[in-house]
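Notes on consecutive records. When two proteins share a document, each keeps its own sequence and its own token line. Never mix them. Below: protein one.
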Amino acid sequence: MKKTFKIGFLVLFLLICMIPSLGLVVTGISDGLSESGEETVFPSLKNVDEEGESWNLDFLSDLGDWFEQKFAFREELVSAYGLVTGKVFGTSSQEQVIVGTDGWLYFTDTLSDYQGTDLMTERQLFDAAHTLAMIQTYAEQNGIDFIFTIAPNKASLYDEHMPYYYSSFCSDENNLSHFLPWLESEGVNYVDLYAVFEEQDEVLYHARDSHWNNKGAALAADTLLTALGQEHVSYENADYEIRTDYIGDLDEMIYPSAETPEEEIYYDPEPQFTYVSEVESNYDRRIYTLSDAEGSLLMYRDSFGNALLPFMAENYGSACFTRDQPYQLNSDLASGEFTALVIESAERFIPNLATNAPSLAYGYVADESADDLDYTADITNLVAAEAGAYTKITGTLEEGSYEVDSRIYIRISGDIYSLTFEAFPFSLEDGAEGFVLYVDNTFLGILGGEEYSYEMGLS
């Protein structure tokens, strides 16, 4: 009896293991799209090129890659595994997803913020805040209203469903808490959405998605538009219906063929605007919109901007929503049409603000205090290269040569004149401190000569 049971168990185990292979009988081994949507081509034993035929020595490796792409019942098996590990053992089968209680899912990439690990250095916090302050100054000098905002991580607002083995190590010391004082000291027009959402009695994020729901997006938009002084439609008391038809991004990741629809709010009427051209989704890299409102908006955003976009688009006559990183301000502001500039960043992306200096010709420094600095020609790894109508100048600072809040000035001298510019600071991947400066070639033309010398001063 025991022997029969063991044999039966072994046969069942082998059959389960063979499901992906046996499934090829159903899906076939012909070329075409795999279950993941990728083009598949069965590998050949021989290679054919201009020199003739030769044996394909990588056949077994190619066969393995083909099998991964052609894997039968991939999504069903992934979902089944996710359901067993999540529902039975309370753990996640997908390293990017944290399985919480009561069906809640969290994005693993936000865990370091939640636990206060991988903290930015004080210099990196300065880099991020001062870069935003420089962008704000440029915008205001050109008659453009500017605000910056951070979309809070879901775990930062709603951590009651986080697993106990993570919540036990929750910390109030994180990049967001450390960043706020720097934003204040640099005078950045910051809109605190964390405080706004924390005041709400109802949950405004999805349980199985990493973002806010439509009601949360409407609240965020109302807050931002109020801060900008833009006349706008408020959805605080608007009519809406609730449909259980929303599939969360985290749900799709962990249960690709067994998602659980959850409630979403749909306003009636919905935000009134039109897309300038066809879009695949609000996650497209660049989206242009039109409406009957006044003003023109340029908004740099991430995935939190997907639900936010309609509520912002409705309230500007024209708008451009872009996911470009770094921010391409030289080209985006060239038209001179925008009346408002908004930068939205998810909480988990705060470190990116210190490592991605914008493409922006900030302008020369008229402040005489910059002329009183000690300038040196010793700039490490200086590179000056043509970048369209601009010259892009980059370099690194010698370790120990700068303070936490040192500003970087570059003096460029020609045969006749010299001009001083402030460069954007940024942190390199290896921890070194760098800078980038875009100079309009028109400025360089008045310096005289064809060769220029570069000196650096630190405040």
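Protein two starts on the next line and is unrelated to protein one.
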Amino acid sequence: MKRRGMLRAVAGLLLAALLAAASVACGNVGESGGSGPGAEGGEGPTITVGSKNFTEQYILGNMYALALEDAGFNVERRLNLGSEQIADRALQNGRIDLYPEYTGTALVAILDYGEKKLARLDTPEATYRKAKELYARREPADTMLRPAPFNNTYGIFVRREVAERYDLKTLSDLAEASPNLIFVSFSEFQNRQDGFPNMKENYPALDFKEIEIVNSIGLRYQGVLQGEGDVGIGFTTDGQLASDRLVVLEDPKNIWPFYQPAPVVRTEVLERHPEIREVLNEVSASLDVETMRRLNGQVDLQKEDPEDVAREYLEKEGLIN
């Protein structure tokens, strides 16, 4: 499988420009501060909230921070930490007190739960219970609170005209047509065992003409929509998937684990401040896949600020004043 550099070079230039603009116009994304009242100090205990480095994580991290501030905590934000390994190291060394993680991701990428054993966890609840159990065994221990009731799994998508030309409805169809197609992926998906290696193992006919690596979600969608690639990888809660120009392919073999987002909290922090549990569980319980896709779309498509989107949602739901 060949790799070409055109999309990568274009993506790098565009991403640099976007990041430069974001640092001026949208300072809270990726910053450790925050504009909420708790970030400015107060009488309550201080909790440090982290997140990984994509839109949904920024929104969830801000939701957790805002809900805790409303409950009387001072909150320091350390959002946009990077991958789950970086976020987890920050949790383990006490640099952050909590961050949102996904149940399947925790088992695959953090807790070293074997792929074959993971495949036997055939319900979201079983996946959550196992992740919670393994977090609790660590030293120092962490606690995974209740997850939100939606599955943010991988979504393989194609332009509608590509789907119609090759009669693509499922990943099995895609595997047969793949020698004619360019796949726009990202490095983490290519390297994680539950990502492309899992896809290739279950659909062995996959052999894309070319694979482009574009680590920005927005630029991956842009590349496929503009015809620089034919197939892309996103997540089922991405706002872009509401577009009628894209078709999400079905996975008849159900190869992906369950990925429900949940707060992971340092256990010693939770023991000192048990009220955190109820505050964050209420936030998680309020979310569903349609809501998360809409909120992600407000940031990615309508260019709203993640903290503003989180605040508006929590206020509307009556979760903060």
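For the record: Strands lie at 46-50, 74-78, 98-102, 142-144, 154-159, 182-185, 210-213, 231-235, 246-248, 261-266.
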